[in-house]
Specification:
With about 800 residues, the chain is an alpha+beta fold. The N and C termini lie far apart (about 135 Å).
């Protein structure tokens, strides 16, 4: 017995090796599923085909075949469509199969008619899915996207001029959306393609005007909407449709996230429509949920940056964009950092030679407020890139939003002041009949787009039977007009597929009277890019005040100039008896070179405004202060900034100034510093904190060229490189004249010059003598006998009596 047992044990491995470890399943469905999981798609196809051969009603086999041909390297969308349709023939209310069909219908074609058919089919299919399963996130997402497209079409849309709308068959075009429980006045209707609830009827066909009449602005510029309305052209506003679309889109997208908060694409859709609407508080609320599920997604942080920035929270926006860079891939980071699209052509070579260094200088020069810890212009650039990518991307062309025509223009100039969609409902031929959309359309598989006969059938079912002279292109074309005030861009979407391009009139349009030099926006865009590479208009938060300031340049050390910047802060009311106004503020003076380098900056915090630094005028009171900067010769920008603690009041003034080169050996005159007071400085200290001390004089400089005619006018100036006589002395003559500004024409000035006409004004003349080539002086002018409320010209001249040479300066001031 033991020998038999041992023999059996020895034979067991041999017998076991002769048999398979696991019997292969005889069921072709199981074979197909195993092959599918293993990635052996050809074997899976064979198994599922055997399954449907065995059982032509095997809906699951059809569904799995559709998946293979849609999702795997065996991709064949035509076969995928036929197999999913077969599955739905067997089980027409299977939600899983309906969702698969919906996903297939999302494929784009290269024919706008097919795209329109698919768009309508997706809406119908999504509604069917939700009738079977009201919690289906996929279907809610689809309807949300559909209504986003409607909102986009109608939010700033106008239609003109030859077709109007009326009820069809007495049915109310306002219909309820049973899936959300509120009204949609259009639901499935697109007025440019017809609709099941409305029909288009021919209205006035009077011509818009005589092409030879130069007074018709519409014929000169075909996209001037105000001119259209002014000429009485009937323009239909579609804004109510847009609001309905917005409500429907938000309702469906919120339900999609409610039932599946991990549907990543829905967050993009919601951010897109919030950005279109400008509903950034709602966007921030939605992004909190996105952060829970996708905390390291760079799009989350760029969305947060955009929403915070547009909501006025620049600090949070700066932090969000900074965080976004931590998660961006190199391609996205490059898009956010490159400057190619916004630079003048003449500066691009400098940028290419040193991208990082140039970018740093560029953003410094464009920063509107140096007092803040962030660069508002850079934040605006990041916000524009995010907005452009959200709204103007082209998935068909695989282009991010910032690489499309509209996206690039938006990055250059920002959101336009006016963004209008114009839908011209007119045809070149006569349209005698237009039938409503047929109840069904052919299946939108690959054969539809390829076979002209099938495509024609689809067109007829989609739009009705048109007369032979109906022009689909004219009916379909849509225009998007962006107006920035002093320039405009016009885009066209001739196939209503969202692929907008800059409008250029066709040969037919030119033959019909379109002026190509005015209406070719491809050419006009290139001209605008050259003339205005980019634009940004800073709008500070809080109350904005204007601050006057004057800049005076004097010879400094080591070839530099001493640049005195004096400014005045308007004070509405104050107690002259009080020594201090209880106010904390930050002030700064900044100097930026023409090469975009920060040359000098002075920042300080002011704790209280001393009332003895206030000078009163008839219209305002000015608290006076100033700073001195060292500046090289050349053209520079001077920025003066002031803000109260908390940012309630903000003042920013920036001006281009020319700093003279005082190193030349010729006779030179400094700038003239206007002042309210000049006196000796005891121990070299200023009399008031706002005074500047120069060459032993304490000077209360004027921040603007306004004086009371009852107060003396002080002038401080310096003259350089006087010629010394043999004994080392200098001899010169100073003359200052203040007279009313001459506003007469050239001939009048000549007559006054020849015959001594005009007002006498005030003049001061005195000799000067010194022992050094450089001298400083101040003069006092008494203007009490001059007429107030007028503009005057101050003329200062210094004549070197040793060399016979003269130098002079001229400036305007106002007497009140």
């Amino acid at each position: 017995m033991r020998r038999v047992l041992l023999l059996l044990l020895l034979l067991a491995p041999v017998i076991g090796g002769a048999l398979p470890l696991r019997a292969q399943p005889a069921d072709p469905m199981e074979q197909g599923i195993l092959a599918f999981r293993a990635g052996d798609y050809a074997r899976a196809v064979a198994a599922f085909e055997q399954a449907v051969k065995n059982d032509p009603q095997n809906a699951e086999a059809y569904f799995l075949l559709a998946r293979i041909y849609f999702e795997t390297p065996l991709r064949d969308t035509g076969k995928a469509g036929r197999f999913i349709d077969r599955a739905l023939e067997v089980e027409p209310e299977n939600v899983k199969y309906l969702v698969a069909k919906l996903e297939q219908l999302r494929l784009d074609s290269w024919n706008f008619i097919v795209d329109k058919i698919r768009e309508q089919q997706r809406r119908d299919l999504a509604r069917k899915i939700l009738r079977l399963d009201s919690t289906n996130a996929f279907a809610h997402e689809e309807l949300g996207r559909a209504y986003i497209r409607d909102f986009w079409r109608y939010r700033n849309a106008f239609m003109y001029p030859t077709f109007a709308f009326r009820q069809f068959n007495g049915r109310d075009p306002l219909q309820a959306d049973p899936l959300l429980g509120f009204q949609s006045e259009f639901a499935q209707f697109d007025p440019t393609t017809g609709g099941s609830q409305l029909e288009i009827v021919e209205a006035s066909r009077e011509p818009l005007g005589d092409p030879s009449d130069p007074n018709l602005v519409f014929l000169a510029d075909e996209f001037d909407l105000e001119a259209l309305q002014a000429q009485g052209v009937p323009v239909q506003d579609l804004s109510r449709r847009a609001q309905r679309a917005y409500d429907l889109a938000i309702g469906h997208l919120r339900k999609a996230l409610e039932h599946d908060p991990r549907k990543r694409a829905v967050y993009d859709d919601m951010m897109r429509i919030f950005a279109l609407k400008g509903a950034y508080p709602e966007a921030l609320e939605m992004l909190q949920q996105m952060y829970v599920y996708f905390p390291e997604d760079p799009a989350l942080w760029t969305y947060l940056g955009l929403a915070h920035y547009r909501s006025g929270n620049a600090v949070a926006a700066a932090k969000a964009f900074q965080t976004a860079f931590q998660y961006m891939d190199p391609e996205m980071a490059d898009a956010y950092t490159r400057l190619d699209e916004i630079l003048p052509e003449e500066e691009r070579k400098k940028y290419e030679a040193d991208r990082a260094g140039y970018a740093s200088r560029f953003w410094t020069s464009k920063d509107p407020r140096y007092l803040t810890p962030y660069n508002e212009r850079k934040l605006e650039h990041y916000a524009r890139l995010t907005y452009a990518d959200l709204l103007y991307g082209s998935p068909k062309l695989k282009l991010r939003g910032w690489n499309t025509e509209r996206g690039r223009i938006l990055v250059r100039y920002g959101i336009p002041k006016t963004d209008v969609i114009i839908m011209p409902s007119q045809t070149r031929g006569q349209q005698r009949g237009l039938n409503p959309i047929a109840a069904s359309a052919p299946p939108p598989d690959a054969d539809i787009a390829a076979d002209p006969a099938n495509l024609q059938t689809g067109l007829q079912q989609f739009t009705g039977n048109f007369e032979s002279d109906f022009d689909v292109t004219v009916e379909a074309n849509t225009f998007n007009v962006w107006d920035y005030g002093d320039f405009r861009f016009v885009f066209e979407d001739p196939f209503r597929n969202g692929e907008f391009r800059l409008y250029s009139p066709s040969a037919d349009a030119i033959a019909a009277g379109s002026l190509p030099w005015l209406n070719d926006y491809e050419i006009r865009a290139r001209e605008t890019f050259r003339r205005i590479p980019e634009r940004y208009e800073y709008a500070p938060p809080g109350r904005q005040v204007e601050i006057p300031y004057l800049v005076s340049a004097f010879k400094g050390e080591n070839g530099q100039a001493d640049l005195y910047v004096h400014f005045g802060i308007p004070i509405n009311h104050y107690d002259p008896e009080a020594g201090m106004i209880n106010l904390t503020a930050n002030a700064g003076t900044f100097l930026v070179s023409s090469e975009r380098d920060m040359l000098a900056e002075r920042r300080r915090t002011i704790y209280g405004l001393r009332t003895d630094q206030i000078v009163s005028f008839s219209e305002t009171n000015l608290w006076i202060d100033g700073q001195v900067l060292a500046a090289p010769p050349g053209e520079h920008d001077v920025s003066v900034e002031f803000e109260t603690a908390g940012g309630g009041t903000v003042a920013v003034q920036r001006r281009r100034v020319r700093v003279p080169d005082f190193t030349a050996g010729t006779l030179q005159l400094s700038d003239v510093m206007l002042a309210y007071r000049v006196e000796e400085a005891p121990d070299g200290k200023p009399v008031l904190p706002s005074d500047v001390v120069r060459h032993g004089l304490s000077i209360q400089a004027a921040p603007w060229s306004v004086f009371s005619h009852r107060q003396p006018i002080y002038l401080y100036f310096e003259v350089y490189n006087l010629t010394q006589a043999g004994d080392g002395t200098t001899h010169y003559e100073i003359e200052a004249v203040l007279r009313p500004k001459d506003t007469s024409g050239g001939l009048g000035k000549l007559v006054k010059g020849l015959f001594g006409g005009g007002d006498k004004g005030v003049s001061v003349s005195l000799p000067g003598e010194g022992r050094t080539p450089d001298e400083h002086h101040y003069l006092i002018l008494d203007a009490s006998n001059q007429e107030p409320g007028r503009l005057y010209t101050l003329h200062l001249r210094v004549r070197d009596q040793v060399s016979g040479k003269s130098v002079e300066k001229e400036m305007d001031l106002f007497l009140e």
